[in-house]
Specification:
about 120 residues; four-stranded mixed beta sheet
């Protein structure tokens, strides 16, 4: 359980904010319809948001290319979760959010170019 405390704290914060501003309609936890973005799913007045929360004691640098398209295949998971939530809630505006304490590498690139065009 100790490893989930930051995740639970953030979920509690999101739920409180949704209640405080009158936007929260429902909360999903471990929502199978959200793929791996099921840590907390919020049904708000204007949208549905599925969150994947990754925390670790010692944050590390990451490269976007490897995060999105490497072993984690986060881009594919993002799309799958978004698509499934859209199918489950037709007509709703759907968002997915990946939250981490890790930070992007300063010398990161997304492709073979150095940003020169």
């Amino acid at each position: 359980m100790r490893g989930y405390v930051p995740q639970y704290d953030f979920a509690a914060h999101l739920i409180y904010e949704g209640l405080a501003d009158g936007q929260l309609k429902w909360v999903g936890l471990a929502d199978r319809g959200a793929g791996c973005f099921d840590d907390v799913v919020l049904g708000l007045q204007d949208r549905i948001v599925g969150y994947q929360i990754k925390t670790q004691t010692n944050p590390e640098a990451f490269g976007l290319q490897s995060l999105l398209f490497g072993a984690e295949k986060l881009a594919k998971k993002l799309y799958h979760a978004w698509k499934q939530l859209k199918l489950d809630k037709p007509g709703a505006r759907v968002q997915v959010a990946y939250l981490t304490r890790d930070f992007p590498r300063l010398n990161d690139t997304l492709g073979p170019h150095d940003g020169d065009g």
